[in-house]
């Protein structure tokens, strides 16, 4: 089974509801060079308009509409750090969900694994980090109402150095582009 087929299969059967009680990812400096950081970024639908926060340019954000019975939603965004010092996306909150976690998905042999990223996501100086399907993403849990195509989902992104910013992410098709 190839990587894209495995990811599609996991998504279609509600992989987001998998128990995440296993080992959690720890940031030991490897986040700066994580393979697949930009995976699928070229296929991303047009998202939220760009926002500037300190040295950070935040753009292309969106969430996917939720399928019937899907217990969680996924959100995606691109962050470019034009500054000379590293920053870190430490957390995300949303009034549309009881909890938002930062997650990563990656292949371990033939098995797609998803883990919460503890400690946030590094945004290295001069780098662009893309949260995209099948890689790093925002996981919306305890969703108050399913995300419907054409709507928006408010989020607050919190960064270690740049501070916080409120943005509205457009809801696109559950199937992507």
From TrEMBL:
Cleaved signal peptide residues: 1-25
Per its UniProt record, what InterPro entries does this chain match? Answer: LpqE-like, Lxx211020-like, PCuAC_sf
Q: Which residues cross the membrane?
A: none
Tell me which UniProt keywords the record has, alphabetically.
Signal
What is a single Pfam family found in this protein's UniProt entry?
Answer: PCuAC
**What name has this protein been given in UniProt?**
Copper chaperone PCu(A)C
Gene source species: Rhizobium lusitanum
């Amino acid at each position: 089974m190839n990587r894209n087929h495995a990811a599609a299969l996991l998504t279609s059967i509600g992989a987001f509801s998998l128990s995440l009680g296993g080992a959690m990812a720890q940031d030991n400096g490897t986040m700066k060079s994580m393979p697949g950081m930009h995976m699928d970024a070229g296929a991303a639908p047009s998202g939220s308009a760009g926002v500037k926060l300190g040295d950070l340019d935040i753009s292309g954000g969106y969430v996917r509409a939720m399928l019937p019975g899907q217990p969680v939603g996924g959100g995606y965004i691109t962050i470019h750090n034009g500054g000379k010092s590293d920053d870190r996306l430490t957390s995300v909150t949303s009034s549309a969900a009881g909890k938002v976690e930062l997650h990563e998905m990656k292949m371990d042999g033939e098995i797609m694994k998803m883990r919460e990223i503890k400690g946030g996501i590094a945004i290295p100086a001069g780098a662009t980090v893309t949260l995209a399907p099948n890689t790093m993403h925002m996981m919306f849990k305890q969703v108050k109402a399913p995300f419907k195509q054409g709507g928006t989902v408010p989020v607050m992104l919190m960064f270690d150095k740049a501070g916080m910013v409120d943005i509205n992410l457009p809801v696109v098709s559950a199937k992507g582009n």
